[in-house]
Amino acid sequence: MSVNRKLCDLCGKCACVCPTDALVMVGRAVTADEILREIEKDITFYDESGGGVTFSGGEPLMQPNFLNAVLEGCRKRNIRTALDTCGFASWETVDGIKDKVDLFLYDIKTMDDRTHRKYTGVSNELILRNFERLAENGSKISVRFPIIPGVNDDAENVTRMAEFALSHGVKQVCLLPYHRAGIEKYRSLNRAYRLEDVQSPSDKKMELIKEKLITVGLDVRIGGG
Amino acid sequence: MKDRVRKLRERSVRTKPYITPERAVLITEFYAGDGASQSASTPGRRALALRYLLEHKQIFIDDGELIVGERGPAPKAVPTYPEICCHSLQDLEILNSRKKTPFAVDEETRRIYEKKIIPFWKGKSIREMIFGRMSEEWKAAYEAGVFTEFLEQRAPGHTVLDNKIYGKGMLDFKKDIKKSIRSLDFLDDPDASKKMEELKAMEIAADALIRYAERHAEKAREMLKKEKDPARRKELEKVADVCSRVPANAPRDFWEALQCYWFVHLGVITELNPWDSFNPGRLDQHLYPFYKEGLERGTLTKEKAKELLELFWIKFNNQPAPPKVGVTAEESSTYNDFALINTGGVKADGSDGVNELSYLILDVVEEMRLIQPGSMVQISKKTPDSFLKKAVEVIREGFGQPSVFNTDAIIQELLRQGKSIEDARNGGASGCVETGAFGKESYILTGYFNLSKVLEITLNNGLDPRTERRIGLETGDPSEFGSFDELVNAFERQLNYFVDVKIRGNNIIERLYAEHLPTPFLSLLICDCISNGKDYSDGGARYNTNYIQGVGLGTITDSLTAIRHEVFDGKNVKMKELLKTLHANFDGQENLRQILLNKTPKYGNDDDYADDIMRTVFEIYYCAVDGKPNTKGGCHRINLLPTTVHVYFGKVLGATPDGRKAGEPVSEGVSPVQGADRKGPTAVIKSVSKIDHLRTGGTLLNQKFAPELLEDEQGVDKLGHLIRTYFKLDGHHIQFNVINAETLRDAQRHPEKYTDLLVRVAGYSDYFVDLSTELQNEIIKRTEHKSF
Fold it and tell me: What are phi and psi of B464, to 5 degrees?
């Protein structure tokens, strides 16, 4: 089955009547209160594990007002929060939520601006600048560094990332091995997947990068769980 | 693992179970010969029969064994109990040739059965007595698959030992028995004479076990004569020494303690074939004083203790559950005889019970990887995280042990039932998940109860569509019901009716065992049979509880939920139409079936629409059973567990409104319907916590995980947090099925059954069935490398 995207107006009726759930709407409109009620269901787990809520995406900073409202709600309920972000947002937006977030899970994809432009379509300048300001602000940050073979796994880039993090007092780094789980998602969205040829890095490669980063003084984990 | 352990373990695992006619021959000789005339009382004859068995059965000591004694003439030789169930030649053939849990039966055994056993016992077994005395209503319900009957092939057992045999020998028990005899009041107590007979029988049984142990000492000395190896000679001397010491006297060291229990165990499972064999219970608590003293005095090392424990473990594995046929084989299709070793928990004074031995036992469990004995950890709020962590590390190995229990819930369950605080703290769980006051309680499971079958009969106004017999009440034509409540009321009336039929049967069967098959040996082990002068099966124990085990909570909940959602609230389908569709097993109505499967709320997702209905069902079942008296001064209670009966109960059940097709298994334990939980383990935990576990005598929750989820430290910690949270919410028990590649392949073939299966993908987790085939294959490959 495929959807003619040109005719689709996202009304969702097809998914609603599809008895086998072969068609599903991904995402739905919710209010901040609805989300908070869902979050509250798991309070007892957060209490036990010292965990909390992670806002991820997509990109949560794309919906700053909504994010702000939910973060406020969590604060009131004493629920810890983490924000998984690519950092690409105006400082005004980041500034508005920065003190309501307990931990930033901050993506740094590459230090090289040209590569960044090539693969993401935008410069990394704003991202790095926001990172610096958050660090100055004293926000707790954990770097998420994806390892994409042939794109950003070169020694120079890894070293520059490490220097950048350390120079801003950030020690925690999660190395995320590139995976191909997105292929299926692209396919179902009728979109071309442009890294078909890129394979996941080997365990050995991941370990090598990890060791290298540990020697320069970073606190490194493989995986983001 | 030591070489000795490896060899014996391998023999145990490799040997296929087979039937030995030894016990059947001996018990027949006894009753057919003049043995039976030596006592005028039934308990007396039973005790003499046990003495005869233990005096004449073959004694077996294997090469390298330190803990000795087998129920049959050799490991995996399984005896039969014709006084309970006299197998026909056809039964023997079924046992010999069936695919699942077969028992080899040789020509000689068949001949003995034909010539000696069947002619003598036919018509006299308790199984035949039971079926002969059940009402027509009972038989109709039993045949329809509304409930099963636990006691038709196996004797009441379901009990666990406390610490009494570690401080007292059989000679001390005899003193207690004598004292009780002396205090009998023949003037004012009309039962004094009956009590006298029972107590005398216990005395004979105690002597029988002492003699049995002595025969092992004699055998060891005999072997000594031929043994040349000086190391083995020393061991055989010690074996002989231990066997002449225990169980006549209380054990003095770690070795004697284990051997003492083992003889007691063999006594119990030779006397009759009680359910759940028997069980030492809180082993780390019982053995710790011996362990500590041995280490302090230099007479024991940690390594030696481990070796002895491992040899002890193998003894359990050598004794498969006695053969079952018919419905009983379907409800409990396993060689596992459900001895469940408890570790952890709290002491009698309420303080944390975890000690060095608790950890050592987990090492043994991990190394042995045997189906028997089962092992579990009791986790209380006082249990250190390090112990829970150790348990999770064993769990992630993926062989299904240990299961995890909530001590604080167990204690509250027992207190609610009226046990003293000390008895509750000294208790635990046995069998699958059953709560008990160890050493003081007879807690008999009487049969499984098919909750969804009762709904099916309600939806057919009293008729069982499979047998086309009217076996229930006429509670009205459901298509006339104007509201969901009307349906619930009809279901409640129907359920009360069948529970009453079951309980009436229970109270007859209980008397049959009390009068025809008393168990004087088991009785002398359980408080307060000696001081009461009463048999275990006749209310002699301090506490006497009967259970009826509810099955398929998920299926019944989702079925009622679907009716409410689609018929009454949503008005998407008329009741008449739904019933027609169910009768046709959804033939031509796949669309409706998919809507029922995918578009209606399900139990297991922390959704109150469904979970509230689960609570209603729980309440109805609880009220129907809880507090109804048995004939032993106790009463009936509920628990929620299935063993393997959810498969049988599914077979006798037509299509159900939750979209399940006819004949498919119903849900097991308190777990959601397979694949109905789609919001992850925390939502399952939340839903299942809405059951009032504390008003049950045990509930069973299964969770499936792929090994990668537990790969690192963090994964182990997370599972620990999940367990702690469930227990904070009063959950009773949880066990983890760490799945293997084979299961994943099945999930590829049948994704609809595995919609809840979580796997670790790459630094994150996802539902397996949602992944592309390519990625699924990758994970299967990975799992193959990382599991066994």
Answer: -90, 110
CB of A114 less than 8 A from some CB of B = no
ipTM metric:
0.86
Name the residue range of residue B772's domain.
739-788
Assigned domain for B353 exists: no
Contact A224 B682 (CB under 8 A): no
Cα distances (angstroms) measured from residue B303 to each of A45, B230, B234, B294, B306: 39, 21, 18, 12, 5
One domain for residues B749 and B667 = no
The reply to whether residue A183 touches residue B771, judged by beta carbons under 8 angstroms, is no
Strand partners, B376: B342, B403
- On whether the pTM is more than 0.90, the answer is yes
Looking at the complex, report in whole angstroms how far the Cα of residue B125 sits from the nearest Cα belonging to chain A.
53
Residues 19..78 of A with a Cβ closer than 8 Å to B: which? 19-21, 41-42, 44-45, 48-49, 51
pLDDT digits (tens, 9 = 90+) for B29-87: 999 998 888 888 999 999 999 999 999 999 999 999 999 999 999 999 999 999 999 99
pLDDT in tens, B581-625: 999 999 999 999 999 999 999 999 999 999 999 999 999 999 999
Contacts of A179 in chain B (CB under 8 A): 761-763
User: Across the interface, which of A21, A181, A225 has its CB nearest the CB of B775?
Assistant: A181
For residues B23 and B719, give the distance between their C-alpha atoms in angstroms, rounded to a whole number: 46
Residue B647 lies in a domain: yes
Q: Give domain status of residue B357, yes or no.
A: no
Tens of pLDDT along A21-41?
888 888 889 999 999 999 999
Q: Of the candidates B423, B68, B87, which has an alpha carbon nearest to the alpha carbon of residue B246?
A: B68
Selected residue of B594, B716, B769 to mutate for chain A interface (largest A Cβ count, 10 A): B594
Closest CA–CA distance from residue B594 to any residue of chain A (Å): 5
Q: Given this structure, which CATH class describes domain A31-222?
A: alpha beta
pLDDT digits over B274-286, tens only?
999 899 999 999 9
Q: Give the integer Cα–Cα distance in Å for B667 and B649.
A: 10
Q: What is the mean pLDDT of residues A58-64?
A: 94
Q: Which two tokens stand for residue A220?
A: 């490194």
Domain parsing of chain A, residue ranges? 31-222
My answer on whether B586 and B526 are in the same domain is yes
Whether B495 and B639 map to the same domain: the answer is yes
